[in-house]
Design a protein that fits this description.
- This protein is α+β, with helices and mostly antiparallel strands.
- 24% of the residues lie in helices and 32% in strands.
- The protein is built from 20 helices and 54 strands.
- The strands form 12 sheets. Strands 2-3-1-4-7-9-8 form a 7-stranded mixed beta sheet, with helices on both faces.
- Strand 24 and strand 25 form a beta hairpin.
Length: 971
């Protein structure tokens, strides 16, 4: 590509309106129409010095040095299109949008909101219409081509953009001038959304994400971690909590445990089939029902005529999904992501074709894409059990590790195409209605299996979609947190309907002219009446349903029931213990190195106490909330485990969880238990909403009974702001400048700023100013100058790493080299930051919730030393000590209680520890630890390995501990 226009640039996006209808009408002749359209537009662009940036089928993305040239090109193109003779007298109508800005440059492409704004303006136009932004109008209104005027259309909201746009329309002599109102965010009109300008926009978004994506890989992520653990999807919405509801029943066949439930067309459970320890994905084809086992790493074949399991065979790797095509079974092979916990789920690395007669692999296809930079879209949204593969007669579709989609030739196993303009794909469905993808939890996209192009996109307004299916002429999708099923009729003008279901509705399947959906929260499966668009029957399956398929005369549902008795048992007393505590941790996958230490530390605490707490003997059950298939906390298993704790009257408390998303799912279930709430004491959950409300983060409704039953020995992430204020005071900084990123989700920056400002004010540290950095900017020299002029003696970066490396570089150029820069652990991993910034990051301070092992008080260091003697390997900070302290808290509460759950919960809430593993502390009324201890790391670079044995902190040394008293935390 030649040198792109730089400085002030005008973007022009174009797209054929109704291209699907033209294709259906012209069939083979459509290619000629498309070629003529491209020739006419390219001629107009070339005549006016336009540079073609990209083209996708029937759309163009073009850049111009001068706004007047862009307008002249648009006018020339519209006149040429109108004058051309088209076959069958069809009307080829092209919509166009123009916007002028000063974009940033990525790798051979433009990045930034200016590109998005131009694409949104084009999407709002009608065929034959040219829309201009306010900036573009201001540049051209005194220099319009002859015969061209302007019509003011007023201000309009553009989807996903905060600032409204003042739109104008070109009025071109000899062409239609009257159009309906623009199709902007404020106009609720069912329209065809198939323009490739959206694909081009998303390509720009993908480039921006790849360049600036926040990869704050932290052990205990909350907002993003909850995506994986609690199926929170979309654009950073607050984590929702699912409360159990009762389902109506038509029959109740008892389940013996983990199985496949067989539901007949009348809504009765005919049978529960034993297919392994953790059945997951289900596929139907070749006269059989195929079931993947998430833990045994096997695939079972069921004869639907007899309900007999006729064959079970192992897989070559960790199976992630399966699909059935013509005379072939396709299995996804999983690998773990990076060693960092944030990217450490299992993703599909390759696809194997299995001969269903011999169980032999005929070929394996390695999928393209690197998961490292895409965990927020691909891995975080990947829900084990929801289909990620789809097989047709001529194609197999698979989600790549980076969240894109490949089409595979089923005969050769070769990748024959990648779907253009789609990222963040989390589910696939295929049928007579075509191939459909679910992207970013809100976009349904149809793919042309011949061109690999997206021919239609439909945006769904919900808190997040999970499952999709196609059938009965529609696309079906589930919104678990809204408790609705969406039915979309994807015509030229799509029609969408919502079907009331229950909160927790998850998977959905079509087969035998029936639509079935499962609900993991209330343990039911429901049938949807496709004529009335309502649920006509709900069937309890007495366990947690995961995956669903319909066909061969039944609905087939994998159900999972956890049992405390199946968890690893620790007890050295005689007979049966009086009471039981459990731990709930992901003991498989990349996090296992830490969670196994946590398990052993809890066991050590029990052994030290002789498995007693006061007058009670105590048994310990170590329960796993992960699966081999997922590689991390599996939200289906989190729910099943919570039911197991609630249903076992001997269980009075749980040490857990590792991921906050799992806790969000478990707490309502455990809080509603009889004869009282099962109390959770967490060593790792740092999501603020579990205990308190913070700006941008709601206080989650995790206590249906109104009685709090959760406390944590680790500080919440938002209190890192207060820790930064304490550090600033210790560094004798009289004033600090606070920064946050433009466009960042509010749950990151706002809580940190509020916490810092509150604590700084009480400590006498002045906030010298508040600024916002633009992640798309090429230079931050002006911002650095502004900070320098403020007289600030330090800087606190209170947000995630959005182009933060460049920000730090420019701050170092302007500010004194000794000026302290403080950031939260949202800026991790440090190796990546150091690679971006070089020496500029040296000397930075990073806050971290919790105390590194070397900063623990004497009792804590002694515990870690004793633990290290029995642990074969490196001992990680923030693991064994915090798990041991959580167990100690629970056991002390039991010793003070009367042995009932309610009494144990009350005693936990009233905890006051003196000289414990973490020192002397108590819980405040929210259940947060006070004082809150934090580790401050100082960046030193080089090849320094962190003494904490946490890879994300490599390149730093432990600088000090800071303690934040309750007075600085209280709101």
């Amino acid at each position: 590509m030649s040198q792109l226009p730089s400085g002030t640039v005008t973007f022009l996006f174009t797209d054929i309106e109704g291209s699907t209808r033209l294709l259906a009408h012209l069939k083979d002749r459509y290619g000629d129409v498309l070629a003529d359209h491209q020739r006419l537009l390219r001629t107009a662009f070339a005549e006016h010095a336009g540079q073609e940036i990209d083209t996708q089928g029937d759309s163009f993305f073009v850049a111009f040095h001068r706004a007047s040239d862009a307008v002249a090109a648009a006018v020339s193109a519209q006149l040429a299109l109108a004058a051309h003779t088209w076959p069958d007298d069809v009307d080829v109508r092209v919509r166009m949008g123009l916007h002028t800005g000063e974009p940033s440059m990525g790798s051979e492409r433009y990045v930034g909101l200016g590109v998005h704004r131009a694409a949104r303006i084009c999407a709002g136009a009608h065929g034959g219409q040219v829309l201009l932004s306010g900036v573009t109008r201001g540049l051209v209104e005194d220099d319009l081509p002859a015969g061209v005027g302007l019509r003011d259309l007023g201000e309009h909201d553009l989807k996903d953009l905060d600032r409204p746009e003042h739109l104008s329309q070109l009025v071109i002599e000899g062409l239609p001038a009257e159009f309906p109102p623009p199709r902007t965010a404020g106009i609720h009109t069912a329209i065809e959304v198939e323009g490739r300008e959206r694909e081009l926009e998303e390509a720009a978004e993908a480039a921006l994400a790849a360049e600036q994506a926040p990869r704050a890989r932290r052990r205990r992520r909350w907002a993003v971690a909850a995506v994986a653990g609690a199926i929170v999807v979309g654009t950073g919405a607050a984590v929702a909590v699912i409360t159990l509801r009762d389902g109506s029943s038509s029959s109740r066949t008892t389940s013996s445990g983990n199985a496949v439930a067989v539901i007949d067309p009348e809504g009765s459970v005919d049978d529960y089939l034993d297919v392994g320890s953790k059945p997951s994905n289900i596929a139907i084809g070749n006269g059989a029902v195929w079931v993947l086992d998430a833990d045994d790493l096997t695939v079972s074949k069921i004869d639907p005529k007899t309900n007999d399991v006729t064959r079970t065979f192992g897989t070559e790797a960790i199976p992630t999904d399966l699909a059935v095509g013509e005379d072939a079974l396709w299995i996804g092979n999983g690998e773990a992501g990076s060693g960092s916990e944030a990217g450490g789920t299992i993703y599909t690395r390759s696809i194997s074709r299995i001969d269903p007669r011999t169980n032999l692999t005929t070929h394996t296809t390695r999928l393209p894409g690197n998961p490292g930079a895409a965990y927020t879209s691909a891995n975080a949204l990947r829900i084990p059990g929801v289909p990620q593969l789809a097989a047709e007669k001529n194609s197999v579709w698979a989600i790549n590790p980076d969240g894109t989609v490949s089409r595979i030739d089923p005969t050769t196993g070769e990748i024959v195409g990648t779907v253009r303009g789609m990222t963040g794909v989390s589910a696939i469905a295929a049928g007579r209605e075509g191939v459909w993808l679910l992207s970013d939890g809100r976009t349904l996209a149809r793919v042309d299996p011949r061109s690999n192009a997206v021919t239609q996109k439909i945006e769904i307004t919900s808190s997040g979609l999970i499952g999709i299916a196609v059938g009965a002429g529609s696309v079906w999708a589930t919104a678990p947190f809204d408790g609705t099923v969406w039915r979309v009729d994807p015509g030229v003008e799509p029609v969408t309907r919502t079907i009331p279901a229950q909160v927790g509705v998850t998977d959905i399947a079509f087969g035998d002219d029936q639509v079935w959906t499962s609900n993991f929260a209330d343990g039911t499966v429901s049938r949807i009446n496709i004529r009335t668009n309502s649920i006509d029957q709900t069937i309890p399956v007495e366990a947690t349903p995961q995956a669903l398929a319909s066909g061969e005369g039944a609905a087939w549902v994998s159900v999972n029931r956890s049992s405390v008795a199946s968890c690893t048992y620790f007890y050295e007393g005689s007979g049966e213990p009086d009471l039981v505590i459990a731990s709930d941790l992901p003991l498989r996958g990349p996090a296992a190195g830490e969670t196994k230490q946590m398990e052993e530390a809890i066991g050590l605490v029990l052994a030290d106490r002789g498995y007693r707490a006061g007058a009670f003997t105590i048994g310990y059950r170590s329960c796993d909330d992960s699966t081999a298939q997922g590689g991390a906390s599996d939200f289906f298993k989190c729910v099943a485990n919570a039911h197991a704790y609630a249903d076992d009257p001997t269980v009075v408390g749980v040490v857990g969880t590792y991921r906050s998303g799992c806790a969000l799912l478990q707490l309502p279930i455990m809080n509603s238990a009889e004869p009282g709430p099962v109390t959770m004491v967490s060593p790792a959950n740092t999501y603020p909403g579990l205990t308190h409300q913070a700006p941008g983060i709601p206080r989650e409704d995790t206590y249906p009974t109104g009685i709090p039953s959760f406390a944590r020995v680790i500080p919440a992430d938002d209190y890192q702001g207060a820790a930064a204020a304490v550090l600033a005071n210790a560094l004798e900084l009289r004033s600090v400048y606070v920064l946050r990123a433009a466009g960042s989700s509010p749950e990151f920056g706002l809580p940190l700023i509020a916490s810092f400002s509150r604590a700084a004010g009480r400590l006498g540290v002045r906030v010298a100013g508040r600024g916002v950095w633009d992640p798309e900017a090429r230079s931050y020299a002006t911002l650095a100058e502004q900070i320098d002029r403020s007289g600030a003696q330090g800087v606190f970066i209170a947000d995630i790493n959005l182009n933060g490396g460049r920000l730090i570089e420019h701050l170092r150029v302007r500010l004194d080299k000794r000026t302290p820069i403080i950031a939260a652990n949202f800026f991790l991993p440090l190796p990546d930051l150091l690679q971006t910034t070089g020496t500029a990051a040296l000397g930075m301070y990073i806050t971290w919730s919790g105390l590194a092992n070397e900063l623990l008080p004497r009792e804590g260091r002694s515990f870690v030393r004793r633990f290290s003697r029995q642990w074969d390997g490196s001992v990680s900070s923030f693991a064994s000590a915090y798990a041991g302290q959580a167990a100690d808290v629970l056991l002390d509460a039991i010793a003070r209680s009367d042995g009932t759950r309610s009494s144990v919960n009350e005693e936990v809430r009233g905890t006051s520890i003196r000289n414990g593993i973490l020192g002397t502390f108590r819980f405040n009324t929210d259940g947060d630890i006070v004082p809150a201890g934090f580790t401050i790391f100082r960046v030193v670079g080089g090849n320094a390995k962190s003494s904490t044995n946490v890879p994300d902190l490599d390149g730093s040394v432990v600088d000090r501990a800071v303690y934040v008293p309750d007075a600085l935390l209280r709101r």
